[in-house]
Amino acid sequence: MNGNIPTLSVAGRTLPEAWEKAVLACWREGVPIKTEYDKPGDPPSRDCTMLWTVEDPFAEPRIHRAFPGGLEDLEIYRQEVVDGVHDHWICPEEGKWTYTYHKRLFAYDIEGETVDQVATAVGRLAKTGHTRRAQAITWNPKLDARTDDPPCLQRLWFRILEDGSGTPVLNMNSHWRSRDAYKAAYMNVFALTDLQRLVAAQVAERTGRAVRVGRYADLVDSFHIYGSYFHEFEGFLKMVEKRTFEERTWPSAYAEPMFDDARERLRREKAEGT
pTM for this structure? Predict the structure, then answer.
C-alpha cells in the first residue's frame, strides 16, 4: 500500500462483457478502503478508480444473468432514468426521494427555472456534431453537499464522429463520483445506453441523417465492492469460473416477456395514481 488508489481500465464489446471485466478488475486489483456505511465486523471494500468502455452497447447478448435484481426491475429502472416514470416520487420533506437522474437531466431546477439539458445537448449536436459542449450535469451544490444521499452520476458528455462510410456515430461518456460495482453499475449502464440511443434518434430527427450509437465510456472515481456482501459476491465469482460466457448472459429477446410485465405494472401504477 503506497496510499495511491489504483486507476484501472477495461473494455468489452458488449455490455455484459465490459461490466464483468470491470467488476473482476476491481476485485483483483482494487485496494481495501473503509466506507461511511460499514457496520462493526465488515471488512473494507475493494475500491479503485475505473474507466470501462462498452464498444457496441446494443450488441447481443445485452443482459448479464448475475446482475442483482430481477428483469422487471431492470425495465422499470430504465424507464425511471429515460422516461421519468417515478419523478413524482421526489418528496424529501416526506422522507422520500431527493432527486431522480431523469429530473436532473431533463428538468433541472435552477432558481425556479426548469432546464432540459438533454434537449440542449441534442440541439447543439444537431448543429455541430463535433462540439465539445454537449453535456448534462446532475450535481446541485446548494442541495447535494448537505444530503446523505447525493447523486452518484455527475455528468454525461456527448460527441459525434463520422465512421468510414460517413455515418454519424454518437459517443457518450458518463462520470460518476461513486458506484457499487456489483450491485448498481450494470443497471445504471443498461439505462444510460438507452438514453444514448434516445439522443442519437433525436439528433437524427433534427438533422435528417441516421445517427448510429457508438461506444459508451464510464469513468468512476470510486468503483467499489462492499465488504458487507463479500460472501454473496462469491456466487458471482463461481459463476464466472464455472460457466461459459453464453451461460452467464441472456439476449434481449429472452427478457422481453418480463419487460412487458414491468410495463403493465407501471401502467397499473399510473392508473392508480401511485
Answer: 0.96
